[in-house]
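G.,

No rush on this.
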Amino acid sequence: MSSAAPHSSNNRRRRPGRGGRNRGAGARSLPAPRQPGTFAHPFTPVEHDPTPIEFGDLDLDPTLLQGIEDRGFVRTTPVQSAAIPLVLAGEDLIGCAQTGTGKTAAFLVPIIEGLLGSRDGAGRDVPEAAAGAEADRPSTRVLVLAPTRELAVQIEEDFQGLAYHTGLSAVAVYGGVEAGGQERALRAGVDVVVATPGRLLDHMSTFSHRFDRLEVLVLDEADRMLDMGFWPSVRRIVSTLPAKRQTLFFSATMSDDVFRSAVEIMPDAKMIQVGITGGAAVTVTHRAHHVASGEKVEWLSRFLKREKEPTLIFTRTKRGADRVARRLAASGIRCAALHADRTQEQRTAAVEGFRAGRFTALVATDIAARGLDIEGIGHVINFEVPDSPDAYVHRVGRTGRAEASGVALTLVAPEEVGAFRALERALNLAVGEPNAGN
């Protein structure tokens, strides 16, 4: 779920919208899928009923239901059916489900309901406010940590849409932009903070905003935070939080490292596993095209001139994204590049331009593989064979979302055939021989 509204870093309420170098096949091998392996984690998937439920039958607060209706959502997805009752009951929870299945709403809907009710977000009675200055100090009740700016913005936008009629407030806190607006929002007091770990630590170290009244902690895409080296920062943040809180993990892939990290902070969590986790979404059709490395941009140009649906193209490097975007633009394709070396203003313009249809193609690194939720992406194209099964899963998960169908294309140069075959085996994909046609 996502909102198409432009992002700003204050806590105003907004009207919701509708819903490395390739060294050749012989020089590298793909790792196995990042699935639970030898680590004996204590989490056993709990039985759950994935049957869709009408949101109107969930006995939610009327103001929250209005926000859900504004977004055009009628019934829950399986992961939402499984997670919402457990989150409402105050359980610590690990939620693992395929990309595009509605994990964000699976935690936002019950969190908003908890904030609106007489109890806190973890099912406990709300304690009486402390006397004196402590009672006047702004209190944040929910903290959501996300690995990328794009995902932080996406989650905050989703919250703003769902909570539009409730009076609840939120702010997205992330780097790459001037920190003053974020600091003012934090000082003023918001119910929900959605943050990347590094920028949040900066704020926590420079002024007295604290989370001693926090009720719910959410770690979204925890595996990515580990991959990006954020876990020490996450640990530092968690060490400042109240021990009595509800903690939620959500991700499409859960490795042994993620489970070890979860044990550190939520040893008694329940776990829900919906669908075939670690694999690509079943709504995506997988294809491959045999294209020489030097001919891939030309192939893309012909493809994009023929196809009318929005297309997201992934490259392995930032320089590669810029190069492909420039060459496509020179051939008349309306496109933009998205990667970590672009300014936040450029990144926002690229995403919003793609969302609004001003660009028919977006060329991105894996920064867009998490948190980019744009309706109607018809094709995801891997310009090179991805380096890992996880990268493939999260990339292609940008299409085929919310029960829609999508197509994932991988451009396979002769020297990449071995790596692509390894990817097929790792993910149990049935792609067949790469097609040399257009």
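When you get to it, here's the other one too:
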Amino acid sequence: MAEPRRRRQWPYILAIALAVVGVLLLIAQDQDTIRVESPIEAADPGFPDYLAALTGTAAIDGNTYTVLRNGDETYPAMLDSIAKARSRISFESYVAKDDATGEQFIAALSAAAGRGVAVRVVLDSIGASLSDASQDRLEQAGVQVKWFNPLRFWALEETNYRTHRKVQVVDGEVAFIGGMGVADHWQGHAQDTEHWRDTQFRVEGPVVRMLEASFYENWLESGGRSAPALDPEPPPRPAGARSVVVWSNPTAGASNIKLVYLLAIAAARQSIDIQSPYITLDESTLWALTEARRRGVRVRLLGEGTITDAMPVKHASRSEYQDLLDLGVEIAEYQPTMMHTKALVVDGIVSLIGSANFGNRSFELNDELVVAVHDPGLAAALLRDFESDLQKSTTMHAATWKDQRSFTSTIQERFWFYFSEVF
């Protein structure tokens, strides 16, 4: 008699499980639609000050940015800076593996610590994976390794909050930020489906001090007992890009990361070019893009295609294509390999670069790091890359998008749409 009773109970168990999932998804939804308008245009020289005031930070002059494309350009530059370090290295990443690429960084960081450089490392406990042997090797060399939000059964809610920041700062003088972690799939030049297309940035100037400060926030949160005093604020430089550094933690409403994106979109008067994987919209970002189109702003979205490491997120993203296409938003998907570049350019002068994807997880759940740069030179370089990547992409069209969807695709897209704000 016990077996039939258990069979009769499973529909109730399933119903309870679905109800719990439904409640969690409801909680994750954008509870308040943030409708942001900007009285100051992106091209206005005062726009960085406006951004800084509303995000509680500072607009910093005199910075230079070098665009590094894919592993062939990025990893040699990062490793060279580690090899030249004299006093300290701060390294934080969501993804770090002890594959062949990871071995290069383990060796370089260990060598730096061996010659007396203070090396501090923060890794996310879900995104990163090091063997015990690799961690022991680092620590025996003198590298201090901390794990962000380690998994603990008594604090399961914390598993949803990750550090997605990617930052390397050397001697307080040079920094690297962007979308790249440390793993073999970032090697090369996006030459095949196994090697990703991505962008990293080498940063010099007074803004590096703020990037290092963002690292020490998570260093302390991850168990680091002390952070060294930052170098004195350097004197103003006569030339260089004006920049606003913004970092965020999990929050309700609008985090500073989300706010800086909404403000940048609101400041657009001509064009918005968004390149990002995992594009998912909430009511706030959808409203912002809708209003931009009503102002006559050209909006282009370039995301990854079916070569992705997160197909459910791709389905959720595609569920919103028709509405966006009907607004006149231009949408394309990169075809050769996984596209992981994160950059937004407004009116050919304001660029948002860093670790954040254009989606709710980055805007409200992850610890992220973004720099708003007011500089036509950087914007032009990013737009050249955008156009180059666009030539390798498939463009979607409002008149034919629905007809291209199979029944199975439509069901998948509709299903995963309900999870879009937790991706």
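The mean pLDDT is 91. Residues 132 and 349 are 46 Å apart (CA to CA).

Enjoy the weekend,
O.
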